[in-house]
Specification:
This protein has helices at about 5-10, 25-40, 40-50, 70-80, 90-105, 145-150, 185-200, 210-220, 240-255, 260-270; strands at about 60-65, 85-90, 110-115, 130-135, 155-165, 165-170, 220-235, 290-300. The chain is α/β, with parallel strands linked by helices.
């Protein structure tokens, strides 16, 4: 599963209405979350083009767990006839979403809704033709119940789209010239351990087999589809990509101290030291490659 995104944005609380991070300075985090989401714009645009083949002329699009609204505003661009509602549990991030919508000239059909998922969706004025949930579902303890709640807010013929899973991203060659080769493969294990702890600590956490098509079907939806989208930002990385890689590795370093050996910790420290020529801030071989999977299903008419 591609949980690297969670090691940065999500561990800082990506504002998806989870409510389990309360000490975040959102005025400080907002620009960082926005910049990181912008880095993934190619993935979102390709996913929207795929969705548009079957979701034709939606009246209402809901971004459930919108954060600062980068994806919400991309939906407004991709579907110019739709009203878009960005839903999130963090008002300062919704303020950024509204400001972004204003800059892009879509405020006449852009709204925000503050509250915890999935219950806040009951406050929508009318059912959604497309409900998008990008890495927000797994922050809810009972994912099956949350999916049922998502499905209930769809209009007949409406589509639920989940971005969950995919492949762990890669940033560096297998042998980076310092430490033992294969660092990122070992960090995958650290990430999975962190993710398991995060899930177990959620209020009302229920263990669920992550067969998304089966879960969508269990929510009463039909016509499940799945497709993955590639993010391929080759070396040499841009400053924005380097910043993202540094954020991911920093979160893993902080979260996984007990799950990695001393040599890997020392390697991470060098990778994160801007003064070190071997750091991700300076080395020429940093890249960003990942695959992100979207699962869809339709509410029967």
């Amino acid at each position: 599963m591609a949980h690297d995104h969670h090691a940065s944005e999500h561990r800082h609380a990506h504002g998806h209405g989870h409510g389990h991070d309360t000490d975040i300075d959102w005025s400080e985090m907002g620009p960082l979350l926005e910049a990181h989401a912008e880095l993934f714009t190619p993935v979102y645009e390709r996913a929207m083009a795929w969705l548009a083949k079957e979701v034709t002329e939606p009246g209402l699009i809901v971004d459930a767990g919108s954060g600062p609204g980068v994806v919400s505003c991309l939906f407004a661009e991709a579907f110019p006839g739709a009203r878009v509602v960005a839903v999130d549990g963090t008002e300062p991030l919704l303020e950024r979403a509204r400001a972004r919508a204003a800059r892009q000239g879509v405020t006449d059909r852009f709204d925000t809704l503050a509250g915890e998922l999935p219950g806040v969706l009951d406050e929508l004025d009318y059912p959604a033709d497309l409900l998008w949930a990008s890495r927000s579902l797994h922050h809810l303890g009972d994912q099956r119940a949350a999916l049922a709640a998502f499905a209930a807010r769809l209009a007949p013929g409406g589509t639920l789209a989940l971005l969950e899973g995919g492949l762990p991203s890669r940033f560096l060659p297998r042998d980076i010239g310092i430490g033992r080769p294969g660092l990122q493969a070992r960090l995958d294990v650290v990430q999975e351990e962190w993710f398991a702890r995060m899930r177990a600590d959620l209020p009302g956490s229920v263990t669920e087999t992550e067969d998304w098509a089966a879960l969508l079907t269990s929510a009463g939806l039909k016509h499940t589809r799945t497709r993955s989208f590639l993010l391929d930002l080759p070396a040499p990385a841009t400053d924005r990509a380097r910043d993202y890689v540094g954020a991911v590795l920093s979160r893993l370093r902080d979260a996984g101290t007990d799950d990695m050996d001393a040599e890997d910790r020392a390697t991470l420290d060098r990778l994160l030291d801007p003064a070190d020529p071997a750091s991700v801030h300076r080395r020429p071989d940093v890249f960003l490659l990942g695959a992100y999977t979207v699962h869809t299903a339709v509410r029967p008419v």
